[in-house]
Amino acid sequence: MNAFTKPELHALSTSHLDALEEETIFILREVAAAFERPTLLFSGGKDSLVMLKCAEKAFGAGRLPYPLLMIDTGHNFKEVTDFRDFRAKELGAELIVRSVEDSMQRGTVRLAHPGESRNVHQSVTLLEAIEEFRFDALIGGARRDEEKARAKERIFSHRDSFGQWQPKAQRPELWTLFNHKLQAGEHFRVFPISNWTELDVWQYIARENIALPSIYYTHKREVVDRRGLLVPVTELTPPKDDETVEVRDVRFRTVGDITCTCPVESTAATPEQIVIETLAADVSERGATRMDDKTSDASMEKRKKDGYF
Q1: How does 184-203 read in b/e, with b if 16+ C-beta sit within 10 Å?
Q2: Does the pTM of the predicted model rise above 0.90?
Q3: Which end of the chain has the smaller Cβ count within 10 Å, N or C?
Q4: 281 and 301, same domain (yes or no)
């Protein structure tokens, strides 16, 4: 049934991944050399695990020159947060976790109603963590192919003293020359895998045999079909009265807050099988799986201007 054999997939994966890996390692080392207090944003998701693998190659296990930082909404999939803790401990890395729940208790985050998604409010907790630890560079796993606002962003993306992103004030990056200059209170978001695609990520996972949380692979889950999205049935996302609960074979292409992340129908159980599915996909991973990207008032560009990842 597959149009590709495993040797053909291996040949496909080796033609360009070395160059992408080399670029990522160069950027990770550049951050370590240019900034005083950098941190690597680490959720336990596939992109941050790929980035962490490159960091391990850049510096060696147990020798990361910056801590890992996770902004936890409190509504994350347990499989992912458990794997986050396991991988950080395995690598001997310092893991800092800051919670949206703590921001709510401080009164800096206020939900419009109890059922509101906390996802967009991560920006507040992130900016509080930046102030607490005086981070001057935050390394993230965003890629340009994910979403149109991210496609506009530089690899070294400047943020002002309010944590805001100004698309028209970005700095040129000709010939991979990065401008690291900061004023007091400002910081950079750095995206070492900007030039990777979802297909590249899965090819790299297959090549490097990177372990992932189990929900990235096929499993049976209760879902409801809501406007073309398979919404997982959980305490946080219960079915509506007119919806029919079904058990389907699904996997997650991207993982975030439970209240806004949906799986896709899939029987892919290995990275090689996911590579084949990704080759045939005609919708981006966020377009196929993220409820919060469907509304214009929560657009990615607006959220990034307000300090989002």
Answers
A1: eeebbbbbbbbebbbbbbbb
A2: no
A3: N
A4: no
